[in-house]
């Protein structure tokens, strides 16, 4: 499932190719995604110039002239360039941009492609999202403020999307390990010092993943496999029973139905 780093890699991969270009044509082959594709997407976006490609949480925002395409990759979505229009199975949408097609492929159809003429920040899909972890405005103070009335565990709080967006299960485990915080610590007990360490750790872990994706993906044009799935060597995630760098042993348990990995020696 594409997480924030994967989506950021997709953004960095497609932006240089499409920004400043005009959408020459749009082919919609399947409208039944998690949300139906906006009716008349072709008429609404054809001839429009692409101004910018941004990301908010796991949403890609393709800014056009006074409107925006909001794209989510769902569970299995990919975006890639192809010299040919979409014809293969699961290739639901194709935008002809210059001499390439930007293809939206999504076998499970859990993603969405929505067009909006109002500011994306006010769109129902985006308006309730928590702070952006990589933004300079997300720091220990903001995090502490958001956590101080939360009775749930810190790991659960990080996953809910209101405290901060885009910190999925892997990144929550890794960030807590980096910040030396036990995943079951009640969120409201995380004070200023640990909040600040945790906010920094979240940024470092996400940047590490983005860098790993960036080095894996060399050429985004015409590369289907480049649309953003990559492996990072994690410190605790997926390493139950193996040694931690501190000399302890990584443990695994279920927390709200999700696997949590941590080191009881260095996370307290
Ligand atoms: Zn350890």
TrEMBL record:
Binding site for DNA: 90, 108, 150
Record note on cofactor: Binds 1 zinc ion per subunit.
Gene Ontology MF term list: class I DNA-(apurinic or apyrimidinic site) endonuclease activity; oxidized purine nucleobase lesion DNA N-glycosylase activity
UniProt entry tagged with the keyword Zinc: yes
Active site (UniProt): 2-3, 58, 258
Entries under InterPro entries matching the protein: DNA_glyclase_Znf_dom_DNA_BS (IPR015887), FPG_cat (IPR012319), FPG_Glyclase (IPR020629), FPG_N (IPR035937), H2TH_FPG (IPR015886), Ribosomal_uS13-like_H2TH (IPR010979), Znf_DNA_glyclase/AP_lyase (IPR000214), Znf_FPG/IleRS (IPR010663)
Annotated ranges, domain Formamidopyrimidine-DNA glycosylase catalytic: 2-111
Tree of life domain: Bacteria
Keywords: DNA damage, DNA repair, DNA-binding, Glycosidase, Hydrolase, Lyase, Metal-binding, Multifunctional enzyme, Zinc, Zinc-finger
PROSITE patterns the UniProt entry points to: FPG_CAT, ZF_FPG_1, ZF_FPG_2
Domain FPG-type: start-end pairs: 235-268
Keyword Hydrolase appears in the UniProt entry: yes
EC identifiers of the protein: 3.2.2.23, 4.2.99.18
Cofactor: Zn(2+)
Reactions accelerated catalytically: Hydrolysis of DNA containing ring-opened 7-methylguanine residues, releasing 2,6-diamino-4-hydroxy-5-(N-methyl)formamidopyrimidine; 2'-deoxyribonucleotide-(2'-deoxyribose 5'-phosphate)-2'-deoxyribonucleotide-DNA = a 3'-end 2'-deoxyribonucleotide-(2,3-dehydro-2,3-deoxyribose 5'-phosphate)-DNA + a 5'-end 5'-phospho-2'-deoxyribonucleoside-DNA + H(+)
Known function: Involved in base excision repair of DNA damaged by oxidation or by mutagenic agents. Acts as DNA glycosylase that recognizes and removes damaged bases. Has a preference for oxidized purines, such as 7,8-dihydro-8-oxoguanine (8-oxoG). Has AP (apurinic/apyrimidinic) lyase activity and introduces nicks in the DNA strand. Cleaves the DNA backbone by beta-delta elimination to generate a single-strand break at the site of the removed base with both 3'- and 5'-phosphates.
Subunit-level organization: Monomer.
Family according to the record: Belongs to the FPG family.
Protein name per Swiss-Prot or TrEMBL: Formamidopyrimidine-DNA glycosylase
Originating species: Candidatus Doriopsillibacter californiensis
